[in-house]
């Protein structure tokens, strides 16, 4: 979370400055009788940038900010990007992995300047299809670096030696691993940028153990993850003796601004900023005019943007340890040793295809990394249920003519590798009359992965399609009862079911009866979330959604079976933990 150690001070300063901007508006109304009205523009800005934005806005208002004869008042608030993201996501009816629910008092601003374009991209690719932030162009930049205590960095050859992410990964995976931390990347843009860079190296195609290395990297980072940035910073050494340094945090992905601010307080052990190659996506502070605001406010927002792209604003950024959007810095910038100018790193492509920096992050890779992280760092209890009806024999042209069955089993197998031994997982298959008159077959009962991982892998390898039809409703009801009967508190208890068809069991329960029974047996004190992944063009999303609307969870449908691996990861990552 971008709640830096200096965020409280910044927020206090912003509060004072916002009042000043409003006061100047009063002055302007007296000085400019031509004003025909007043536009109040609310601007939510990442805490470290907020004072610079507010100072520029106050100056702009003082000089007579107006649009078409209407005066403008600007209220700038220092906000954590994750809080605004939760609010915007709720407004658009989507859920972002790891973000959580918006607070009941949260209000969506007119203009949002988060610390990274990845927030805009996550909202867009997460299902907020109506989310279309205007502009989205960067107004500041802070490179993402690997922060190390200077004695640790010196031992590795800093500042003379240049480092790569591959070399950092070697340090993380050595016999005496470098203790590496991260701020929860589902809630922190710098953490996400570091995660993407490290896992891209760990999971590089062609390596014989790419998947294993990627999971190992995720778990190494998770060992010292923090929900809050100040907590992570507090794990760096607080004394310069070798014992303290050896037992403290040795490396973390942070912003350059974080390192400058940390060192400005003269800690016992300063941090070195390592600019690793390839350069990770920087914090690029996009200026997003949120959809749905009044046209007059949108016009005012566009004019305010112009006030935040001047040479004078570049110097205001420098005073806050931030760079201009082009990666260069203004007067007074206290550059860390070895800091490049300009700083590299491609931003996320804009969520609306607009004017923000392009080239950079692949939305699918980002989505996959977030989902993989969420699975690898959480624990749960899950029953996986795989359709083995005859239609699963259909071949998938863009998967090398593998069958739907083979593609589905491979997706489940890859997902299994992400679950650590704290998970409990079971495996069923289903069709019609698979075991006598019963539509489902238990291959492995739900149990701890610590003692049955090999059994699950063997069972997955044994799955073959039957000649039967799709006994969906009976199987869902039986699976729900199974998970509920041995429900475990403090964990997400869930069912993940893969199918490529509609219910075809005329001898089983009807859809209406299934929904009645689920409503009857569901228990708010013992929730069971049902995730259904539909494959191919014969699936009815409405049919699947009628089930998950009762149980909680979600229905996901794709006509391309090769997409189910990513859908599986995303579906698991979006499960809600018990309240």
Written overview of the protein:
The protein is an alpha/beta fold and 579 residues long. It has three domains: 38-140 and 285-331, Periplasmic binding protein-like II (D-Maltodextrin-Binding Protein, domain 2, 3-Layer(aba) Sandwich), CATH 3.40.190; 144-277, Periplasmic binding protein-like II (D-Maltodextrin-Binding Protein, domain 2, 3-Layer(aba) Sandwich); 378-574, Rossmann fold, CATH 3.40.50.410. It is 40% helix and 19% strand. It contains 20 helices and 19 strands. It has helices at residues 7-31, 50-62, 81-91, 118-125, 150-155, 165-172, 189-202, 210-223, 229-233, 242-247, 256-264, 295-307, 311-319, 363-376, 404-418, 449-461, 472-485, 511-521, 541-551, 564-573, and strands spanning 38-46, 66-67, 70-79, 111-113, 134-138, 144-149, 180-183, 225-226, 251-255, 271-274, 286-289, 380-387, 395-396, 402-403, 424-435, 438-448, 492-499, 529-535, 553-558. The strands form four sheets. It has a six-stranded mixed β-sheet with strand order 2-3-1-4-11-5, sandwiched between helices. A six-stranded mixed β-sheet has the order 16-15-12-17-18-19, with helices on both faces.
